[in-house]
């Protein structure tokens, strides 16, 4: 298949590689063409031109505004993609923006799936990402073989926007769990108990979790270099708290975790790992 | 002074009336034409739109709901007036939005002040509002006689946006203050203690505040009529939380309070006074 890819960052670069390895013909557009690196892909001049060449286009970028610009802006995908082609957006953006873009593309017969991922850089490299999909089920079935190159767990959550809602829920649980792990590690240290021992003991019981495994280990080793940069979780919390507000349902824990992330940003640790929430608890 | 006034809600109507009473020549405009009636009866004249409300005047004031409304009316104002006009927004909007609007107006030679108020409907009617002003010294000096008809405690805080920063700070204090009084009352009641006696005792000490005195009394009376509607307080706290997110600022108390107001709006109490947060607390702890 002729596959377009926009967004060759920490996540996008290995994902594009997997698609190519699977035998798909790859087209890329990048603001800095150098970021294509050693990918044997055809470089396109604009998103519109890339859209013209491809049956399916992937985007993996940072913000709602980025995706909106790529899809609907000047020389955007909407100007090039043919009716029947599919845009798969793997970025994490606001659910209502995802719905709006899907509706605009839909007017031209272009299908869209919101397909945000979880699993971090390692999951992208290992092709073990969890992919949460919003959009028409029939469209997902058409492109499922492509998604299977990228991840193991591909779940159709519901119509357009539903994938982004699932991602918001994912971030809510994950960052709260990192905060809980950080507080447990902080309590252990403040009580004069070995953090490594506590983490190891908990791993066998009801408090065991992937977060305690991975982020807990970073905290024990005091290795705060990013996996996923904390500033991205901070950005996601902006989306998330907006969604909470629109729902009119109180989310007290999420609100407080958001404030710990604000403190993390203020300390200048935005480009470090979110395990740095432990360091926020150590600020005196 | 010749003054245009845009937006005649609970607050705007009372404020515009005080300008008329103060001897100013006032032209009014509001989206709902019937809300202009009391002003016309008091001697103001009606404009056809926001641009007309500004034309030929030395000053134009807006008192509307949210930042997009302010941007819209000020854009209309900018399109049709001579340089030298002082435009004043007395609504509560985000500091960043106020700065943006100020810059747009400055580009066409209009001086802008952000001048949000505190004091509620009672203060608006009595002409005793607190007015917190951001913008240039010169524009503040021109607008001062108008402010003096509407308020008592008038402070020029700093440059553009500083008024809205002050108002946001005010909403942090009043939002948490209302919640604090409500929690103290819920605490007393769950312990079987008479809350009116608790209020009376606290009024003599360091927990004294206007909120404990006035809002506390209304909580005891279970008078939840606005006053200040809880959806508006929720909107204002959202300005606080968004600004904190943008700046990287940790405000745990405001965050918790914002969620309580979020819950009030979501459970249909948005049109009640913000002191109705007491009812939400009582429900959560099975006291209702």
Query: Helix tally of chain B?
Result: 13
How many strand segments of chain A? 9
Strand order of the largest sheet of chain A: 3-2-1-4-5-6
Summed up, the domain count of chain A is 2
**Protein chain pair with the most extensive contact, residues per chain:** A-B, 22 and 21 residues
**Low-confidence residue ranges of chain B:** none
The coarse silhouette of chain B is: elongated
What is the number of independent domains of chain B? 2
Tertiary shape of chain A: elongated
N-C termini distance of chain A: 56 Å
Question: What profile does the largest beta sheet of chain A have?
Answer: 6 strands, parallel
Examine the coordinates and then state which fold CATH places here, giving the name of the CATH topology of the largest domain in chain B: Rossmann fold
- CATH superfamily of the largest domain in chain B, by name, is NAD(P)-binding Rossmann-like Domain
Percentage of residues in DSSP E strands of chain B: 5-15%
Total strands of chain B: 9
Strand/helix succession of chain B: EHEHEHEHEHEEHEHEHHHHHH
**Fraction of residues in β-strands of chain A:** 5-15%
The proportion of residues forming helix of chain B, as a percent range, comes to 40-55%
Assign the structural class of chain A, choosing from mainly alpha, mainly beta, alpha/beta, alpha+beta, or little secondary structure: alpha/beta
Q: What strand line-up does the widest sheet of chain B have?
A: 3-2-1-4-5-6
**Quick one: CATH superfamily of the largest domain in chain A?**
NAD(P)-binding Rossmann-like Domain
Summarize the structure in words:
The complex is a heterodimer of chains A (284) and B (288). A six-stranded parallel β-sheet of chain A has the order 3-2-1-4-5-6, sandwiched between helices. The model of chain A has no long low-confidence stretch (mean pLDDT 95). Helices cover 51% and strands 14% of the residues of chain A. In chain A, helix 7 (162-190) crosses helix 11. In chain A, helix 3 (64-72) links the parallel strand 4 and strand 5 (86-89). Chain A folds into two domains: 2-159, NAD(P)-binding Rossmann-like Domain (Rossmann fold, 3-Layer(aba) Sandwich), CATH 3.40.50.720; 165-282, N-(1-d-carboxylethyl)-l-norvaline Dehydrogenase, domain 2. Chain A contains twelve helices and nine strands. Chain A has helices at 12-21, 47-53, 64-72, 95-106, 120-126, 137-148, 162-190, 195-202, 210-221, 230-247, 252-266, 277-282, and strands at 2-6, 25-29, 42-43, 56-59, 86-89, 111-114, 117-118, 129-134, 151-158. Chain B folds into two domains: 2-158, NAD(P)-binding Rossmann-like Domain (Rossmann fold), CATH 3.40.50.720; 165-284, N-(1-d-carboxylethyl)-l-norvaline Dehydrogenase, domain 2. In chain B, 55% of the residues lie in helices and 14% in strands. Chain B has 13 helices and nine strands. Chain B has helices at 10-21, 37-42, 50-54, 67-79, 95-106, 120-126, 137-150, 162-190, 195-202, 210-220, 230-247, 252-266, 277-284, and strands at residues 2-6, 25-29, 45-46, 59-62, 86-89, 111-114, 117-118, 129-134, 151-158. In chain B, the strands form two sheets. In chain B, strands 3-2-1-4-5-6 form a six-stranded parallel β-sheet, sandwiched between helices. In chain B, strand 5, helix 5 (95-106) and strand 6 form a beta-alpha-beta unit. In chain B, helix 8 crosses helix 11 (230-247) and helix 8 (162-190) packs across helix 13. Chain B is elongated. Chain B starts with a strand and ends with a helix. Classes of the chains: A alpha/beta (284), B alpha/beta (288). The interface between A and B is medium-sized, with 22 and 21 residues.
